[in-house]
Design a protein that fits this description.
By secondary structure, this protein is α/β, with parallel strands linked by helices. It is built from 11 helices and 15 strands.
Length: 336
């Protein structure tokens, strides 16, 4: 198999601001694997808070040894890879799966034994801005599920403005911006706005802080589910949070690809937790690849392509918040 690495720069429709920072472009990496006239595609999203850059991901991928020629030995091929950033590993994993599906003439969801419908609806993300601007974006989106990015500056004003603008289901995501004490007070104050869930309120690396938060919220009669995102990268990170949170957010760029993402979902299920399938800011390539696991999940946050103005691929179909998987072989994306 011949591996080729190219830059993939994505222009955002609006400035995207979260507690980690703001951006107008995302600089990802496109991987292709060629074998016998077939091409498998993969995408690596450079996530700055993981220390990735487009250049570092491309360098890691360009230094890979040959992958071998047996497309059906997926596990062996992936286990033989040297240590890679998770996003770079995800790109190779995607490309191998895409080639595998094309070789067999079947979409990935069928090879995983899954049905393509019905799928949960996806949320649409509103980045941090003034309460008025955030409310206007939520109103204009028309989406029935809104995910609100928050930091510690004006969360109640922002959520309140959005709730006044829409009767959509609301999820909030603090991206690890709150202390346990802040989270306890803020979540309690946000309860009247009827939140579906709160995502990653606390910093990474302290499962016991989540256990404390859940206990203290329960004492106040607050039952809003808590999900973790940055705290869980691979399946092995799930079990330590058992009983401390209600759900985990699974992304291919964190797990290193489809196979480990599936393991993370099943591990969450085994520990009584729900699973939300999500994405970084990716093109339709990366998000469509993830969506083949959507039938396994309770919630979806797969709006990456909706935020991008120059998506080079066509794959997952959006009808508002409702998603349809392509029935083409492999991941099922085609170049625009």
């Amino acid at each position: 198999m011949k591996l080729t690495v190219r830059p993939l720069s994505l222009n955002l429709r609006t400035t995207f601001r979260v507690s980690h920072g703001a951006s107008d472009q995302r600089h990802n990496v496109l991987v292709t694997l060629e074998q016998d006239g077939l091409i498998g595609y993969g995408e690596a999203a450079a996530v700055f808070y993981y220390g990735d850059t487009q250049e570092s991901l491309a360098q890691a991928l360009n230094e890979l040894p040959p992958l071998g020629d047996d497309i059906f030995a997926l596990e062996n091929s992936l286990r033989a890879l040297p240590a890679l950033p998770h996003a770079a590993h995800a790109a190779v994993d995607m490309a191998l799966h895409d080639l595998w599906g094309k070789r067999l003439g079947q979409p990935l969801y069928r090879l995983f034994g899954l049905s393509p419908a019905p799928l949960p609806q996806t949320s649409f993300t509103i980045g941090i801005d003034t309460p008025e601007t955030m409310a206007e974006r939520a109103r204009e989106s028309g989406y029935p599920i809104i995910k609100i990015k928050l930091d510690a500056h004006a969360p109640e004003a922002q959520v309140g403005a959005i709730r006044a603008a829409t009767d959509a289901c609301l999820r909030v995501d603090a991206n690890a911006a709150w202390t346990p004490e802040q989270a306890l007070e803020l979540i309690t104050r946000l309860v009247p706005y009827d939140l579906e869930l709160v995502e990653q309120p606390l910093p990474v690396g302290d499962a016991e802080a989540y256990r404390w938060l859940k206990t203290e919220l329960n004492k106040r009669g607050v039952t809003t589910p808590i999900y973790i995102d940055e705290s869980v990268q691979t399946a092995r990170d799930v079990a330590p949070h058992s009983g401390a949170v209600d759900g985990v957010v699974v992304k291919l760029m964190k797990t290193g690809g489809l196979r480990e993402a599936m393991r993370a979902i099943h591990t969450a299920r085994a520990h009584g937790m729900q699973a939300m399938l999500s994405c970084m800011i990716e093109s339709s390539l990366g998000v469509t690849a993830a969506a083949h696991l959507a039938p396994l999940c309770d919630q979806l946050d797969l709006d990456g392509p909706l935020l991008v103005g120059n998506d080079p691929f066509e794959g997952l179909h959006y009808d508002g918040a409702s998603l349809s998987l392509p029935d083409r072989p492999g991941i099922g994306v085609v170049r625009r």
